[in-house]
């Protein structure tokens, strides 16, 4: 048995015999890490007695293999696509201290009422898990805790008790004897995940992996980790803020646009059944630079408050900042406001914020951002019962977005009786008579409509 040194890219998992500054596969710089692997002769000699698997006609596949198990948390089930699929491999990622372990322990408490759950912890002691379980009322006899980092020992215990659900907290602490590198390295994470995936599919054990997020916001470990699992969930939010959001980045069994909202309380994470009301709670009365937008996350319409602040710059170059939306998109909207709406923002610092720590990526937020900035610049508050949505083009035109009727129903349900929306797509809507629709063609018309009727 010989040892050899290889270099593995932490971004894509590509292996090369020598170190290079730039990965030849993915083009990332300074991502190649040195690793020592064992080279075994005849390690993969095919056996003459081994039978090859037989293909199965697609019409003969049992549909019961796609049955789901409820986590007992409605927001969690929504993001998973209706529940946890039997035999699936789910990666839950987030920053340290955001609440990943708390969320999974609460889900394990509910699933332990009907299944045996094995919770493997590689970072905390039994006493630490016991204290969290007492705080979240997760005292179920069928919830078994195993403090272990050796993958072979985990498989031995799992094979003996045959759990319905397996949780690995976290995948970066697990090490396998088939890899000689350190725990948390690219090869260890990749090898451990591959073997856990094979175990989940063969045994039908639904498996959760907890993953950490690096300083760039990506999941620590090789990018191939995200390709191997069935579902990737990001747990987002400010560590010191109350609200947390669970977002699906990949889901083989459901939509990738669904989100679930939770609130951190003394007894653990609580579901936010009405997230729109929570996001716009505490909105100031008749304040400039504030307006309400209705965004669509998967099948769920959500209302959020967009705030804009414009102040005279004290420096040579105006400053721009954006929180909750893409920075480049915010700068683009400021340029459109100056060119198409006549707001001279080049000498003003401009700030845009989405209240509540939520991040909105869809273009329907464009109109609300532009109106919030215009409101602060013109020192005029937006009509207090008005909500907005719509995409803005470079010519200043307001373009239609999908899910118009869903958005309008959510706006009406939350007590708003006036909505500024794109002109196309406003017809053939089955809506209450007391909801005033204000269709607009361009940005100037939208700004005039937003400030009309203030008192």
Q: Report the sheet-strand fraction.
A: 25-35%
Estimated structural class: alpha/beta
Number of helices: 11
Number of strands: 23
Strands of the widest sheet, in order across it, are 8-7-9-10-6-11-12-13-14
Q: What does the radius of gyration come to?
A: 26 Å
Mean pLDDT: 87
Unreliable spans: 40-45
Compute the separation of the termini in Å.
83 Å
**What does the overall shape look like?**
globular
Helix content: 25-40%
Largest sheet: 9 strands, mixed
Describe this protein with a few key phrases.
single chain, 455 residues, alpha/beta, 23 strands, globular
Explain what the structure shows.
By secondary structure, the chain is α/β, with parallel strands linked by helices. It is 25% helix and 27% strand. It contains 11 helices and 23 strands. The strands form 5 sheets. A 9-stranded mixed sheet has the order 8-7-9-10-6-11-12-13-14. Strand 13 and strand 14 form a beta hairpin. The longest helix is centred in the middle third of the chain and has 18 residues. The chain is globular and about 75 Å long.
Q: What's the topology here?
A:
Blueprint: E1 2-9, E2 15-16, E3 32-39, E4 68-69, H1 74-80, E5 84-85, E6 89-94, H2 100-111, E7 117-121, H3 126-135, E8 143-147, H4 151-161, E9 165-169, H5 186-203, E10 206-212, H6 224-228, E11 231-236, E12 243-251, E13 259-265, E14 268-271, H7 275-279, E15 290-297, E16 300-312, E17 320-323, H8 327-340, E18 348-354, H9 366-378, E19 386-388, E20 391-392, E21 398-399, H10 404-413, E22 418-422, E23 436-440, H11 443-451
Parallel strand pairs: 6-10, 6-11, 7-8, 7-9, 9-10, 15-19, 17-18, 19-22, 22-23
Antiparallel strand pairs: 1-2, 1-3, 4-5, 11-12, 12-13, 13-14, 15-16, 16-18, 20-21
């Amino acid at each position: 048995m010989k040892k050899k040194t290889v270099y593995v890219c932490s971004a894509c998992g590509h292996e090369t015999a020598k170190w290079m500054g730039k990965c030849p596969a993915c083009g990332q710089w300074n991502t190649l890490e040195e690793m020592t692997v064992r080279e075994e002769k005849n390690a993969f000699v095919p056996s003459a007695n081994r039978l090859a698997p037989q293909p199965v006609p697609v019409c003969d596949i049992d549909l019961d293999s796609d049955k789901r198990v409820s986590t007992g948390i409605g927001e969690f089930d929504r993001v998973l696509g209706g529940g946890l699929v039997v035999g699936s491999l789910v990666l839950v990622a987030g920053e340290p201290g955001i609440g990943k372990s708390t969320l999974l322990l609460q889900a394990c408490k509910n699933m332990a009422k009907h299944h045996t759950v094995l919770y493997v912890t590689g970072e905390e002691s039994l006493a630490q898990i016991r204290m969290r379980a007492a705080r979240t009322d997760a005292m179920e006899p069928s919830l078994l805790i195993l403090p272990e980092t050796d993958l072979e020992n985990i498989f031995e215990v799992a094979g003996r008790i045959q759990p319905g659900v397996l949780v690995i907290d976290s995948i970066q602490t697990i090490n396998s004897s088939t890899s000689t590198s350190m725990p948390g390295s690219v090869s260890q994470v990749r090898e451990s995940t591959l073997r856990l995936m094979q175990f989940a599919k063969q045994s039908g054990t639904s498996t959760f992996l907890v993953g950490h997020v690096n300083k760039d916001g990506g999941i620590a470990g090789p990018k191939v980790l995200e390709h191997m699992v069935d579902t990737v969930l990001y747990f987002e939010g400010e560590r010191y803020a109350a609200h947390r959001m669970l977002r699906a980045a990949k889901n083989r069994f459901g939509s990738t646009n669904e989100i679930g909202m939770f609130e951190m309380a003394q007894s653990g994470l609580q579901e936010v059944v009405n997230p729109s009301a929570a996001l716009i709670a505490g909105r100031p009365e008749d304040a400039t630079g504030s307006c309400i937008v209705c965004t669509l996350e998967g099948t769920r319409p959500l209302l959020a408050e967009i705030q804009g602040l414009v102040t005279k710059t004290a420096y040579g170059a105006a400053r721009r900042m954006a929180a909750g939306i893409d920075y480049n998109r915010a700068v683009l909207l400021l340029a459109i406001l100056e060119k198409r709406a006549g707001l001279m923002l080049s000498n003003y610092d401009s700030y845009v914020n989405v209240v509540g720590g939520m991040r909105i990526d869809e273009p329907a937020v464009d109109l609300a951002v532009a109106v919030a900035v215009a409101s602060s610049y013109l020192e005029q508050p937006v009509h207090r019962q008005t909500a907005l949505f719509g995409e803005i083009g470079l010519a200043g035109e307001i373009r239609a977005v999908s899910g118009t009727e869903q958005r309008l129903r959510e706006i009406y349900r939350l007590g708003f009786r006036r909505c500024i929306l794109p002109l196309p797509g406003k017809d053939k809507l089955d809506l209450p008579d007391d909801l005033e629709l204000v269709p607009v063609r361009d940005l100037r018309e939208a700004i005039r409509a937003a400030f009309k009727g203030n008192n």
